[in-house]
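hey all, quick one before standup. I had two proteins in the batch that finished overnight and I want to keep them in one place so we stop losing track of which output belongs to which input. First protein below, input sequence then structure tokens straight from the run.
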Amino acid sequence: MRSTSKFISLILRHKPEVIGITLDEHGWADVQALIDGVNATGRHHLTLEALEEIVRTDEKQRYAFNEDHTRIRANQGHSISVDVELEQRTPPAVLFHGTGEKYVDAIDQQGLIPKGRLYVHLSTDFETARRVGSRHGKPVIYQVDCQRMVADAHVFFLSANHVWLTKYVPAKYLSKCEGHDDLQQDENSTMIPREGTDECLSKGELPGADDRVHP
């Protein structure tokens, strides 16, 4: 089922044409057309019940049905131009982005760009960002100063599966959180870098915007 889920992700986010279907302007696909197209490849066997199980159990809640389960779409992560009716929201003061060490030089110069996707994806906590970064080799975690970004008129969206999205994060709003081997985090706190050090502090210790030193 995992390989089928990955194939569905490819279809609903990037290449619906691989099974001969189309998405509407809001990213919706016809469920029966999806099932028939997936089965026609001969590599996967998909039923409505199996598709509902994939949607229900996906740990990141990547997919959503409409009310009568006749249409399905990916909640975010598209590389094709669709409007998934994202909700514009004010983000937390700090979010995180995990990446691989091999991308650090480019990020330090260019900031975070969507590359093949429509938006930059940001995490609410350090550990999630670390897991994301680990997919790309040795992880490096960036803190994103969303408080400054909002003050500078940058727009953020929150997807249906609670991923924070924005079009671009200039390098001036980024700082690395490097000393994570010694992190201490209680259940009610989010770890963020301590200014001028390789340590991190809890969100509750975050200084006011006027007191912070920015890169």
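OK second protein, same deal, sequence then tokens:
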Amino acid sequence: MKVSIHILSSFILFLILLPFLKSWAVIPFISAILIDIDHYFYYAFTRKKLNFKNSYIFFNELRKNSKKSGAGILYILCIFHTYEFLFLIAIFSLFSEVFVLITLGVAFHLILDYIDFLTTKANYRKSKMFLHYFKIHKEERL
């Protein structure tokens, strides 16, 4: 999903939560956006390049080109988009109200990504579990 859509959707969530959470509503807003930093981590680790702009271009091109038919499905591992990460911050939520709000933002982001997954015909997928990513053949990894 495009960053602009995540920002706009997260801002709408912020506005909905604002009357109830007051200034604390900024935490789900920020966490719903910052979760995508794992795209940069993936790019930096797999491409051995520390360039945020090129990472952004890489994922935009991947998204655009992946809608072309004929290619097999490729998987990427964005660590903050995994069930394990969501489970971990949900556990932290048992001990901290701040983590409840972070979990809310992350879960909101993942729901948006899932909706995007259902509505696009992209041939790349974010692995939702570490085990899945490392279990699949290397040829299926991007």
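Flagging for whoever picks this up: The chain has one domain: 3-140. Residues 5 and 112 are 9 Å apart (CA to CA).
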